[in-house]
Design goal:
Blueprint: E1 13-17, E2 20-24, E3 30-32, H1 34-40, H2 44-57, H3 59-86, H4 96-111, E4 116-128, E5 132-142, E6 145-154, H5 164-181, E7 187-194, E8 199-205, H6 206-226
Parallel strand pairs: 6-7
Antiparallel strand pairs: 1-2, 2-3, 4-5, 5-6, 7-8
Helix pairs in contact: 2-3, 3-4, 5-6
Length: 228
């Protein structure tokens, strides 16, 4: 059930300032995005892995792969947002790219969203006053627990040890939601589908979720130290 009046969500204006994404909050602040903070505080190992992949692919092919993946993810998200709000995704038509993203969205819908009893908002802008802001794909009830949920597309299935930043993102959005709306969300769900339509689901909750929240705020601290 789509229940957009559960919390008074407001869409925050986004802009790019000096190459970094900022959100304008109701308090008049311009706060760095969650992704900006994560990008600025990536480990040297993560940077090296990405650079090695770009070198192996070559700059032209690497950019083409990234652009295709971004487009596929955008289309998939739009199908899912339509489903959450209306209960139906519609038909993809004859475009092969649209068909692929529709198939991926359908997998997430049938295998993941089927566990949700209530949706409170999709593409929800969230902020932690004076510190950061961002947008999560979905807030609602997953398997009887309040949760932050994010949809992810991937070129190939992921191993859990590869997606630390996804878990940190979930913790960041939950902390912001809890701070502004006085909730106690301690569950995050990644609903992921690969380009060849393999569905994966990753869940963190309880004390494990708390540990990821601690990791997030250490990244926040590191980000602001870099700004000094």
């Amino acid at each position: 059930m789509y229940n957009p009046t559960k919390y008074p969500y407001k869409t925050l204006l986004k802009e790019t300032i000096n190459g970094s994404r900022k959100y304008s909050t109701p308090d008049g602040e311009k706060l760095p995005s969650v992704t900006t903070i994560l990008d600025a505080t990536k480990s040297e190992k993560s940077k090296a892995t990405l650079n090695a992949w770009k070198k192996r692919m070559g700059p032209v092919k690497a950019q083409a792969i990234s652009t295709e993946a971004a487009g596929r993810g955008t289309r998939m998200h739009k199908w899912l947002e339509t489903y959450i709000k209306t209960g139906a995704m519609g038909e993809p038509g004859s475009n092969p790219y649209s068909k692929q993203s529709h198939t991926m969205a359908t997998s997430i819908m049938t295998k993941g969203l089927s566990k949700c009893s209530e949706y409170w908002g999709t593409e929800v802008s969230l902020y932690y006053p004076k510190i950061y802001a961002g947008t999560t794909d979905l807030v609602g009830v997953h398997d009887k627990s309040e949760a932050i949920m994010d949809f992810k597309q991937t070129n190939k299935p992921k191993k859990i040890e590869w997606i630390d930043d996804y878990f940190v993102q979930l913790a960041a959005y939950a902390a912001a939601h809890n701070e502004v709306y006085n909730t106690n969300i301690r569950k995050g769900v990644i609903l992921m589908c690969s380009a060849d339509n393999e569905y994966q689901e990753f869940i963190i909750e309880g004390t494990e979720f708390d540990a990821w929240t601690d990791k997030w705020f250490k990244r926040v601290e590191a980000y602001y130290i870099l700004q000094l």
